[in-house]
Amino acid sequence: MGGSFVRYVLALVLILGGGALVLANLRLIDFEIGEVWIYIYPVIFVMLGLKWIVDKIRYNRGSWIFGSFFLLFGTLLLLDRFNVLDFEIDDVYKLWPLLIVYIGFSFFSGTSPKRKHRTKDKWKGKKPHKYYSGGFTVGSHEYNQPNWKVEPMNLRSLAGDFYIDFSKAFIPEEEIPIDVHSLAGDVHILIPENIPFQVDATVKAGEIDVVGQKSEGISRHLSYVTDDYETAVRKLDITVELKAGSIRVVKV
After folding, report:
1. What confidence tier does 119 reach under pLDDT thresholds 50, 70, 90?
2. 94 to 50, 68, 91, 125, 143: CA distances (angstroms)
3. For residue 210, is it within any domain?
């Protein structure tokens, strides 16, 4: 996830681990350093779930599905650690009925009718892309510097957030392909009102919001194209594919 979230998790690990060792040295608790991790990683799951839920509430960028799942999963692990109930990490399969619940909720938000499909060979004849990230990166990617130049982008990540603000960019007079692929994360794209664009967004589990058209649940897909896209010279051809997370495209 984002860099700030990683810092918070690291701070929590250091605080809890160090505090427990102090109490152990004072013989106030019976504690060994090897036991730290079994308490720490459930807290990380809880924090991750809360982050997704809070981001959804405050910024409409998170995910109810993954937020609620990790929050519940981490909470059950913590209850096990404090001997309230029996639940180990291998018991995650017991939560499979949640899929039924999520699918049920997905029926409340139907998919939008598909618009015109983008061309399959959108990279044909394009110059080598300047903006590229390899498929094994983890972390946030932000493109929001004043007057940054837009060139073909092929962004790939195992896990992380993508924030792309085209309203602050210099966009050349041409059709520019933008590809974003990630296993897990949030994608937030801002596009000026005067820039024609088309979007092809797919998420295996999560949600999509493209200029107010929304789809949430399992195996969701949404396509959108502005009315003036075909005749425009300067335009953006955007493809976003996520295994899990949220996709949001906003006009500004």
Report:
1. very low
2. 21, 15, 6, 50, 41
3. yes
